[in-house]
Give the backbone structure.
Amino acid sequence: MLKRIYQTHFKRRLFNKLIVVYSCIALISLVTLSLFTYQFFVRKDMSSMLLEQQRSVDVMNRYFDQKYETSQLLLQQLYQDNVLIRDTVYFLENGYESYLRYRLDTYSESNSFFVRDFHTFYANQFWKDSDLKNIVLVSPRQGFAFMYSDNGVFRKVYPWEVTPDPQFLRDRYPEQDNESKISDEDEAQDATIDIDNPNASQHSEEAKEQAPLEADKEPSALPYFTVTNRINNPDTLTTSGEILIDFGIDGIRHRLVDAEQLDSVIVLNEQAQVIYFNNKKMATAYENNRTELLAMKRNQPLKLNLDSIGETYVTLSQTNKLGMTVISMLPSREVTDRLAGVRTTIGVVTVLCVILVVAIAYVTVIRISRRTQVIVKAMKQVPAGKLDTRINFHQEDELSDIANSFNHMVNDLSDYINRVYKSELKQKHAELVALQSQIKPHFLYNTLEVIRMRAVAKGAHDVGDMIYNLASIFRHMVKDKTHITLQEEIENCKRYLELTRIRYRDKLQYTIEMDAGLGGYQVMKLSVQPMIENYLVHGLGLERTDNHIWIHVLREEEELVIRIRDNGSGIPPERLQQLQEELSSDDLQDHGSLGIKNVHNRLRILYGDRAGIEIDSIYQEGTTVTIRIPIG
């Protein structure tokens, strides 16, 4: 399946590969950016929530410090009033009945119509602090307890043994009778546990637990937490009893709500028992992970993996004066739940961006692909011979550069074909004309050799020399070479001139001059001999005995110059102009011999426009033919 898809859509499709690669890069980049963005918001929100968590702990610690200060202020006021402290001490040391007789005796001995007692003092305390619920005076020596409630009414005397009287507990915690009627939601929001313990050490001024939770029950709460203090006799400095001050947990809840601190908070007493929680699930988690939580370092937030709730940020503090332990729990999933909207937004934006980027990449690559196909199609037309193919792009980019380069290449190719290919055709045609003018040289050469040997045998040595020179000339023509050395070409011309000289019985003289070192240059075969032949045919005067031809070979800068000058009849001006016009024309004409025009065209074909023949003639005085061949 995958192989077939690759073969069909990707194997020879570069732009499809580019779309896939570009899309993958965009997808990976955007997804990575989205993940980092989401993690940034998670870390930022987590930092904010951890800061709020610490504020919750601080609010609780300040609240407990305030209640501690309230209890200490009550004791301070008690000890500062001699009547109140002595009444309280007498009451605790002698019992309620003895105290009543003591008050009657004091009243009778007093001259005042109103005598203050500690009942009024304790009753008035509830008006000062709305969180104050009960004030209990305990006399372990007499074995009783006396309680004031938040309505300012004092109750009867309760027996006080090792275990508190059940009626005392019912009167002290009337809310417990309705505990079974509290819904789970109300328990999670309002449940508290009191830490009052009337059997605590005589030196403790801190909160104690009155009724621990049972392990097999759901987390529950008592309505108060208690601050216990000793009452000492100011005369003997011995302990007369204890005063238990109950504070309601509504103050804790109100403090958290007023400070907008709604985190999961659990408060423990010195015995690590829960006295308050505002989240039932967190309280259960505390019971399940009690050992691990209590082993934490104080005031150092830590991320723990707790049973039933998973990863949780926990802060444990114990900095208040009551010795309460405050635990704040923040499950990690609460952070992610709070960021659900952010996560959804980031996901939607990421998907839209990916779609947009892929669409832009697809459209862009398709446009480039179409322009590339135009180039490919044009390149396929060139091998078919359509050299007039051109690509017209108006954009200014690399593909336009390629198109322009292609157009230049086609132009250059057309020029090259016209210049080289057609020139080669002309060269072949010129060689064919040259071969046709050689009159079957092989057969002629063999025949001439037979005649020469016959002439030598009969004693006609001059005839033998003529035949030898003629045979050498034809042997030179037979060579299947386009280029020969300049020395070979000059030697061939010398034999041709010598043959002519013998033929016309010394009516012709010739002079050959060539700079040393030039004989090794390669020149076109039959480039000089036709010029000499043209002179012998048209310029030689048989009636004269001073016919002379000069051949001068030299080098001028980067050119090899061969000048053939004669003192013949010259060329009429009209014919000279016609010859010069023919030399400037590109047409190859067949005159039945090599001819000046033929040699001129062959030179330009082989050596370029710098090569060629120049003719200068003065009628009845002579002609000069100059052959120029580039050698640079």
Notes: The longest helix spans residues 14-80.
